[in-house]
Each structure stands twice: as structure tokens, then as C-alpha cells.
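Interim report, section 4.2 (structural modelling).
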Amino acid sequence: MTAVSDAPATSDSVLRKQHLIDPAVCIRCNTCEATCPVDAVTHDDNNYVVDVEKCNFCMDCVSPCPTGSINHFVLVRTPYSLDEQFSWTDLPPEDAEADAPAPGAPIEAFDDEAAALLDDAHRGAGGKVVAPASAAMPRINLHDRNHPAEATVTGNFRLTAADASADVRHIILDLGATPFQVLEGQSIGILPPGTDAAGRPHHMRLYSIASSRDGERPNTNNLALTVKRVAEPRADGSVFHGVASNYLCDLKMGEKVKLAGPFGSTFLMPDDPAADIVMICTGTGSAPFRGFTERRRRSMPSAPGRLFLFFGARSPQELPYFGPLQKVPKKLLDQELVFSRLPGKPKDYVQDRMRTRATDLAALLKRDTTHVYVCGLRGMEEGVEAAFRDIAAGVGLDWSAVRGDMRASGRYHVETY
Amino acid sequence: MNIVNVDYSTKIPNNVGLAEDRRVLKALEGWHPGYLDWWMDMGPEGFQQALVYLRTAVSVDPKGWAKFDYVKMPDYRWGILLAPAEENRKVPFGEHYGEPAWQEVPGEHRAMLRRLVVIQGDTEPASVEQQRHLGKTAPSLYDMRNLFQVNVEEGRHLWAMVYILHKYFGRDGRDEAEDLLRRRSGSADAPRMLGAFNEATPDWLSFFMFTFFTDRDGKMQLESLAQSGFDPLSRTCRFMLTEEAHHMFVGETGVGRVVQRTCEAMKAAGIEDPNDIARVRALGVVDLPTIQKKLNLHYTLSLDLFGSEVSTNAANAYNAGVKGRFQETRIEDDHRLTNATYPVLKLVDGEIKRVDEPALTALNMRLRDDYTADCAKGVDRWNKIIEKEGIAFRLELPHVGFHRQIGEFRNAHVTPHGKLIDTATWERDKASWLPSTADGDFITSLMTPVAEPGKFASWIAPPRVGIDNKPGDFEYVRIAA
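Predicted structure of the assembly:
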């Protein structure tokens, strides 16, 4: 993993985060300069620019900007100087180097804790990832550990059957009047209260947003999470209880939760209605795909692009949203629900079902409107990779080349944990 | 009371503690129904029931004041929002330079302050009135939404000024607040106070030019009032400026997109000569020379808003610490202008000359120069678009003596390049500098509405970025059935 640092670059291998203003969109209204609490924004007769030595990514300038030109953050080897920025008429082209994360790569989070978590989760994509070309511009890091948003719990429902071993919950968090703009596929950071045994605050945990950008219901300032209670038996007979997941699953209506984020600027859905989206997941990895599906249903119900869902769980009782999924029409969502522990049946995994649908998937891989998303436990990666490799080979395609192309154009995404 | 977050417990959202200020709250609640009547009568015609994706301030904190949602315009939460107070703020200029800023109106400056607040307040509803028919011919839902955002914010700016009148000017203030709802743009009986605000805004190119040029005058006036020693006025103007920036954006990108589309269409059709007007117009786009004429008109109408170049009123307002210069606190001088001079363009013995005048009386000229420099940067951006498309044409700001009704050049005829000419020459050539009726008719002929999400009229390019990061086909306005 390439180091990302706030400190001045000392060698070429260190990448820095830099905030840039798009001069082709900026209208030089001075709002950002007037808003910046650390005087990082300055201007000459030509451009408004941000001083990389002063900007602390507080994001205060982002919302008031009337143009959206302010919302550009990149990783660079050598930061652009003020003079370079003054001379621009357009942003410099993104560096297309293949290393991950490369200069010019989009920044997923300014918060180092969240950035490290996402970096790890996206490893499975096998290289530098970029957002789909038609994805909306995400807001990131509006809130961090030191300035968290406070949400109120307005729902906490068990999704899995009462007798299922897994306790997976649908949790709704209302942000009230706090601005917290999200996109489908982004994550939020949960900051559990209290401290660990050593007296330090608990680590942040990231959860994918399971609702769409306009809220759990249209035009509500809330978001939903899909959370599995972590209770893993240990070799010594004890049970490990995940701090954040148990905290979330035990929340009662009206309780307050501290949130950081939103985070993530690549695992986003394409807004192009012609895009076909293949979504492969297990368990709570379905969360972002619930957001994707809901977005399509609400905003472009007659989109020509299709949604395909390969969703694995042990049994229907343990598959989150099994009931609601039965009501989603095939025209909106082509579903393959796959179960590995059905009594009297052979184990069936998502990769097996992908092979069953090899003809459809092979046709999809050949189209440059196809976007693939994999989300769930890390263990699923290998099987999914193998299935794609075989499906591609079956039609004379080299999967690693196809995957590389798709990744470079923002059409292949992996988020596993 | 939390000064940053907005109190929604009263009918009027505010961060000025209205709930504890019964007198002013009652006065504003009394004014509210009249305001709504005015909005229904004179606000955007035909779209009062449409759901519009608008930005509403939920807090003056940078993260909080831009909350986007679908709202019916009459339900928009017009509120009273002041930028947070600066601790120990001092009067930054004039005779009272360095004294603590005033939290109440000083008796000796009361009439002058009231006049400035009323003039500023009068322009806000005026522009809503001028633009009320434009919704029907919007070139896209995106543009329609931007128009309505501008309109509701002008409405809020009226509220901002009316609050100052009610809070600080007693009975006189109440009467003035009523009159702000009584005057009408273009009315023969009760016109708006300033000339440019009685002109019609007949089409969308005029709207974009208006928001670029005329709203930019508003920006410069607000910038000067934001310097005021009267702290409540300074704070309200500072917050208004953040909203005003959106209006600048609509104007600059609006004209830019018209220019872009024209250049693209010319290139696609293989037309190299920008003056081949008939052929360019046949493409369903506005030819560049006509855009130049519209620019000439709106720029010069807006220059008139700055008043006479040499003005004792401006000097008095400055001396009194009531109205400062653009970015006053960043200027390094004595902030009293005791012995300073400023060069003013004047007509002297039949020639246009720069004459040094006392800087104090030349403040209008100075603000107008700052304004011209600000405009020139936007025109530069438009020229970059033309340049990028490889068309041999440049848009230019005309000479400040051209087509003026107020100030030094009101009785002279000056060409856009600054040459003095006689009346006969003016009458002969003016149609090549200012839009003619035929030009207006052509522009009007292009104004066919486009209401399908993601689609744009033939004469305007889509924006580079959506509002609030929304994708291109976002339904910015849900028009009521």
C-alpha cells in the first residue's frame, strides 16, 4: 500500500492530498476565500486557488460554493504550487499511472482511519480504482472524529428470521437538520462511545449506506445501514463480540449516534440510465446494492440499463431483505438468490450461480456499459474471480485484461472485509 | 439562543432571537401576509405549485446553510439570517474610524442609513417582478430551477432589509417596509426606485445578462454596505453576499453556455465568419454580434446604477461610516481619504479626460471601476470559450461613456470604443451597437420551453456540473400537473 501523508512530501513514493478548484467552472465569487477559517484560499486576477500548506480539509468551503468548482481533491506526488494553479485555465489531466493509489487518484476519505479502511476494502479490485464516469460527484469527510454528526435512531429492525443464527439489522439514522449528503455506495464511520481496555477511544468502523441519496424515504434526511451483530466463538470457548456492531444492533429508538463521513469516492453507482450493473454480494454486502436498486427504482424506473443481483447467504432466513426482494419486479432487478445451507440440497455459492448465467455474463463483459460490483466477505473474492476468469475464457476473453480495462474506466469495483 | 443555528420555532426562521423580541416579531408577522400576497401576485407566474429543488439556509454555519430539497416556492422558509458577529468590530472607515461598531442606529445618520436600506431593499422584489414570466420559456429544468432559486433568494433579501427597517427604524421603518410591497417594476404610478429595475427582462439571454451585470452591481453595493459601521447592516449584507454568489454564477455560466452553444453550432456547420448572422441564426443559436449588443445594453444600464461619478452623497455616507469601499479592510491607506485623490473620467472641452478629484467625492467612480474590473474577468472567461472553439471573435466591455443616462456622459454620444460622436452619427449607427427590435424578436423566437429532464433548448449548452452534484438528467423542477 502506498503511503498517504499530510506531511510535506519527502520522496516520490509519498503521495499527498491536495484540494484544487476547477478554474473552468469557478466564477471567482470569493465565497470560499471569505469562508475558509485558516486562510488557505487566495486569488490573483486569474484564479482562486488553495494553498496546500494551509488547507486542513475542514470542508467549510464546499457547501457554500455556488458552482461546485471547489469540490476537487486529488492525490499528488508533488503538490501544485500556487503559481501553477494561478496559471491554469482547466484542471490538469489526471495522471493515468496504474499504481494504486496513483497521483491524480480520487481521495476516498481525508480521515486517515477511514482512508486506511477503505483502501484495504478496495484491494480486491487489483489496482487503482476510479469512480464510474457518470457517477455524481461525492461529498466526503463532511464530518470526522473531532467534528462528528449526531444522528437519531428512528428504526432498528431485525432482518433475519428470529430462529436464524445471524442477527442482521436494518437501522435507520435521522440526521435532522445536519447536512450529510451521501451517494449510494458510500460508507459512514460509526464512532462507538466509550474506550477500549487500554483507555483509548474505540476504532471507527465503516458501514455501507443501504439507502439511496435522497433518504430511506424520498426527501428525508436520513440513511439506513445493514448491520450484522458480530459474535464469533473463539477457540478457547469464549465469544468475541464486535464493539461497533453490537453497539448499533442494541440501539433503541431515539438514541443518539455519532457519525463520521460520508466516505468513499469510487465505489459509486453510475447515473447513466444505459449502464448495466452487475452486483455480487454476500450477507451485509448487499447494503450498497439496496441503495443502487432503490435509486434506479425512484429516479429512472424506465432505464434501458439492467440490474443483476447475485446474492448469497446460508438460507432464506439469513438473507437480509429476503422478503422485500420477493416484491422487486424482475424488470427492475434480475435476481439470483443463492443458498449454501439448504437442507437436502448441495451447497450453492454465488460463483456457481454466475457460471449458470455464464452466457448472460459473458455478453455483459463485452459491453462497455457494464459495471461490476463485488461486496461482502473477503473470502468470496477468489471464487468470484475464478468464475469471471472461466466465463471470460469461454468467449475468448482474457479476464485480467478485461478487468483492467473495466477498472480503469470505473466499471469494476470490489469492497470486501 | 444559538446564533449559528436557525430558530424555526417562530413562523419566521431566524438567527436573531426573534422569539425573545416580541415587538419586532409581531411587526414582521404583520408584514408576512402582505409579503405572501405580493409573492403570489408578482412571483414566478404559473409555477407556484411546482416542486422546485431549492437550497434553503438551515444555519449560517458554512456546512449548514446549503440544504437542498424539493419545495413549493410559496412554502420556502424565508428567514432572517445574519452572519455571526465579529467580536470587538470597529468602524472601519470615515470620521468614526476605529470606534466600536454601532449596534444601534446613530441618530445623526438615521435618515441616510434608512435611505440606503430602502434603495437596496427596493431592488430585491423588483428583480422578482421583472423575471416573473421567464419560467414559461425556460430552456431546461436546470435553468428553471436556477431562476427560481434566484427569485426566492431575492425574496429573502427583501426580508433581510425589512427586518432592519422594522428593528431599527420604528414607525418610519414600518411605512417603508409597506412601500417596498406597494411599488411595482415598470409601473407608471409606483415604479421601483432605480431605472434598471423598471426595465423588462423579456427573454433568457436578458436574464443571464441581468444576473451577470445588474446583480453584480448588487454585489458591489452589498460589499460596500457589508463594511458599514452599523453592525447589523454589515452582518446581514455579509450573509446576503453568499447567496448573491449564486446569482453571479447563473449569469456567468448562463451567458457562457449560450456562447459555447453558438460556437459549437458554427463549427459543426462550418461557418467561420461570426458576422454571417443570417446563417448562424438559421442554426437556432444566438449569433455572437447579438450577444455583444446585449452585453453593451446590460452593462451600460448597470453602470447607471452607480450614480454620478462625483457625488457628495457618497462622500457623506463614507465620512459617516455608513457605506465603505469595496474590500475596505484590505485597502492600505488612512481609511478617511483626507487628502487622497482619485482619477475620474470626465468630459472636458469636448474631450474625454481623466481628471483627479478628491477621492472622497469620487467613491462612486471607484466602486464602478472595481465593478468594471470584476465584469472584465467574466468576459475573459467567455472569450476563452470562443478561443477554445477556434472562432475569431472577442466579446468586449464597451467604453464607460457609451449609452449612459446618468453621470458625466448622460448628454454625450460615445461609441463603444470611446469616441465622441454627434447625434446624427449616433442615430445612424446605434442599431449596430444595441439590440434592435428585430434582434429582440429573433431572440424571442428561440424561447421555446424545454421541460424534459436532461434536455436543453437549441441555443444553450448543458452545464458542466449539476447543482448539488446532481446528474445531468436530474428533475430539478417537478411541474405541477
